[in-house]
Write a structure and sequence with these properties.
Layout lengths: L2 H23 L2 H29 L1 H26 L1
Helix pairs in contact: 1-2
């Protein structure tokens, strides 16, 4: 677990609170802010989880990067062939 995972969970929890408070008070702006915080928190938490995975699985991350690179090169090669 790293700072992104922890901070993301905190931001998501803050968003839950804001959205709930906005619903109770009928404040649409507060509901929107809460939803934005929820999404932001989930994204940051996901980034932290990816970082943890990469740090814990170096070989798997290198393999994934290699596969992604080959797929990208193949995609570019295919586009070049179609345009020529």
């Amino acid at each position: 677990m790293n700072i992104d995972t922890i901070a993301g969970e905190g931001t998501r929890t803050k968003g839950d609170f804001k959205r709930g408070l906005g619903e109770v008070t009928g404040d649409a702006k507060l509901q929107q802010d809460g939803t934005a915080d929820q999404l932001s928190g989930e994204l940051r938490k996901g980034l932290g989880q990816v970082r943890d995975f990469v740090n814990n699985n170096k070989a798997a991350s290198y393999t994934a990067a290699g596969i992604f690179g080959l797929a990208l090169l193949n995609s570019l090669r295919t586009k070049r062939t179609k345009n020529a």
